[in-house]
Hints:
Blueprint: H1 5-8, E1 11-17, H2 24-34, E2 40-45, H3 52-62, E3 66-70, H4 77-90, E4 95-98, H5 110-116, E5 122-126, E6 133-135, H6 139-156, E7 168-171, H7 172-177, H8 189-200, E8 205-209, E9 211-213, H9 224-239
Parallel strand pairs: 1-2, 1-4, 2-3, 5-8, 6-9
Antiparallel strand pairs: 4-7, 5-7
Helix pairs in contact: 6-9, 8-9
Amino acid sequence: MAASESERGPAWIVLPTYEEAANIERVVAEARAKLPESAQVLIVDDNSPDGTGEIAERLAGEDDAVHVLHRPLKEGLGPAYIAGFKQALANGAGLIVEMDADFSHEPAYLPRLLEAAERADLVLGSRYVAGGGVADWGALRQTISRGGSAYSRLVLGLDVRDLTGGFKCFRREVLEAIDLDAVRSRGYAFQVEMTYRAIELGFRVAEVPIVFRDRQDGKSKMSRSIVWEAIWRVPLLRLGR
């Protein structure tokens, strides 16, 4: 039988931000509208020069369910999420959702992820299962994404369809079991590493379909260095087994 919220603790949404001033207010509002009243939103800002952190502070001042973690440097997606996970766990989170702050991950899908977490330990919002997909991407970006998931599946011997996606819901037990300080990936390899570690520890993983949409405002964080990190770090995960 699935634990009730009172038994496991509320859901926390972790939103890493860097130069998301154009998006952060609206994404927080839409997420709050789709979440249970008890859910909390944690914005992890890496000292954005565009004022994202200041907007986040204002939102936190207006809503007790919104929190801000300021980090002094831009160190990458992985370290930002790890810092956010630790703060959410320390504050009693029962479910921890990671999602982008640029509307690539639609807040409308949040209830779907939380519902699936009643039956699975880690839920992936998946672009590559039936009903999922990608909108607004060119052929090159789609090839990189699909190729990255296929490459990771082959190297790691997994049957998860969307290993590189970043819209996920963890039960707190998963993050407590993973040695977060040992997670080294900084870019999108972080998504592969977290799912791989959860599976290696025996946790149940489910994929639910989402449609991923390219950001409408702000700049993409994708770079060659992020792609190369994924290429060389994924085999290290298998060797580290």
